[in-house]
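re: ur question from the group chat, yeah i did fold both. here u go
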Amino acid sequence: MKDEKKIKVGFVSLGCSKNLVDTEVMLAKLVAAGYEITPEDIEADVIIVNTCAFIESAKDEAIENILDVAWLKEHRTLRAIIVTGCLAERYREQIFKELPEVDAVLGVGSYHHIAEAVESVLAGKKYSSFEDKNTSPLGGERIVTTPEYTAYLKVAEGCDNRCTYCAIPLIRGRFRSRPIEELVAEAKELEALGVKELNLIAQDTTRYGLDLYGEYRLTALIRAICEATSIPWIRILYCYPDKITDELVEEIGTNDRVVKYIDLPIQHISDRILSAMNRHGDASMIRSVVEKLRREIPDICIRTTVIVGFPGETDADFDELCEYISEAKFDRLGAFPYSREEDTPAYDLEDQVDEQVKQDRYDILMREQLHIAEQKNEALIGKRITVLCEAYDSAAEIYYGRSAHDAPDIDTKVYFKNALGKKRIAPGTFVEVDIEEAIDYDLVGRAAV
């Protein structure tokens, strides 16, 4: 390892926050093995592309990034390319054949072999490892790459829901929770690094604990983290409507350190489409859960996700979805045109929807959501809200950050000016901001004096 200590390794991390945590674990393993991490891809001897393959656009993005990195191999000092993550797991047989520029491929059960992969490719040998994703180690030391005030805590891996459109169980394996003690220890380490916002994530966060303890234990986990740390903001992402328990609703509503925010993907509201998607629960259940959350936690922010153009979705089904979106007025909403994924049950369904129809339905839905967002933001003008400052935009001469109702990377921003003569606001500082203006999805205001 004497000479290899000078080897520089670069990373490209694609896809979701869960994938980012995997990247952070691999970074720690490489540093422990004596490699130097570089943010400059032009300096790297080896570049690792940690990929997503959830939908077609994610696969395209992964391949584009691999080809971009391959240019460095031909024209700069890059010696090897390693592909990890979902694309590697899903297309393990094809990658070497279709992308000969790639030197190593690691599946999602083989992240702990990343240092061996680097050592192998530097020796000029191809390398691949695909250990059982259902028994591979979970968690591990991380080098946190998010800003020091915010971090993700991955509480589980895999998924057991088997939605007919989704390849995640195929790629990531069965649902596996990490023990509460292990997660609490990691939360304490993150707090010691300066984390003020802890985002709990999994493919299905609300299922947490069922496999280990025989019952849902997300509420118990939250309480344990609150007892062991003083982290002021704890956020819950990736919750399923059918697993929102009374206990969880009460915890969100009464625990001052759990932000009044929930990420609750409903995917559709037509019973016919929900059944074809193999979603657990029907429209009545979804409506009931949303109503309960709003009733029990009046200031809650509900984010949801929907799919348009699922096979067999008729104009009537789509109209029903639009009507519910208009009625429910979700605070945050993301929509996706259905992506036909091989090896999923929905791939072979009849009545596949035309691509242009999908796009048109997406556009209609997002126009309606913009209208809802504008109304909700205008109602905040004149109000004072707490904002976690993220940075200062020197070009626009304005600070920006997020409220408790905005998750990192996916939600809106709050832009604000500081009072004249006041001390510069450091990233990670909580600031009281008086809202003066709403622009589309974003808010603009001024730090309270």
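okk and heres the other one u asked abt
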Amino acid sequence: MTSQFEYGSISNAEEAKSLGVVLGQCFGDPSPSGWQTYSNLIGLENFRIISQASKVAGGLAILSTGQWYGSELVPTAAIASVGIAPEYRGAGTAAQLMTSTLKELYANGIPLSVLYAATQRLYRKVGYEQGGIFCRWSVSTANIQISDRNLSVQPVTPVNHEVFHKLYQQNAKVTNGHLERNQCLWELAVEPPKDQETYAYFIGSQAQPEGYVIFFQHQESNKRIIVIRDWVVLTVEAGRRLWTFLADHRSQIDQIQWRSSTVDPLSLLLPEQTAKIFDSERWMLRIVDVAQALEKRGYPTQVEAQLHLDVRDDLLGENNGQFVLTVSGGKGEVTRGGKGELQLDVRTLAPLYTGLFTAQQLQQMGQIKATHGAITVATQLFTGSQPWMSDKF
């Protein structure tokens, strides 16, 4: 890509309006009011644009957040609303936009970047790879067949997401891939579709709840559906009470939908395998700063080991070369050098880092070259629950 394109923040109202037009065309809401609502939620300072001769060719949003890995929070940039005007597509404009964004993130000390991809090819070119799961499940209310009312269920009105933050964080901390939600992400999590109402409930006592559920109701064809936007259950009692609460809607509601991983813990409580996945995709992760990313995640506390890595990064040269990851007491320390016993591209490091795929699986797919000992150590270090998130951005 030539230097005729310029990357930067929005500097005036005309650029903001132009980006709104581009993104409106890309994502199907060209109305000025839709852009105004969205840009207010994200904050204009969090958008980046790419321009040619002062004309906005495209842009994106950067949401400052974090992801939990190994019960440690790793600073993360969530990339949203990547859009390029039609007349600039096919010429590498999107790749230049992403390249400039990643260089900015590296300069700002952000170890990770996560996004949902409309096309994997673009993002793989700049070092992203599949990192975790976004999955939606459904079950008929008639098939829940659980009756356990030992815990109370208490409505939260009006719906104020701040009262759920502590419970969410307790669950997120032990769930690989979950986001540390900022104000914007919480708004996106609880906001219902247009003309719908949000309902929220604590499970257990309000002083010491054991979970919560946030949902809206809508009709789809001939089905009346509860769509759960967010849920947390910290105990089996809370899980059974949640299912009972949802089953008690069966005279008016036909189906329950919720977000989870492909290995869903809630479905384990159901008497039969009647819950089904009806939608699943994988979000993508980019290791922006290899050393920081490896040092900031958590590791199994019982493992003491060294992993000798040899990383190739064609975009961010600072990540190229050999690293030694030394793990002790659940913490990692990274130094330059070592034997380079596990060779991989920065792309492949992403699903290894999150635990989406094991080192052995990646080796079988030709993504890793490594000694048997290095594969064993990597498997020990990057073990954990399947990485997933309930957030869409």
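fwiw on the second one: The first strand starts at residue 5 and ends at 9. The chain has a mean pLDDT of 96. idk if thats what u expected
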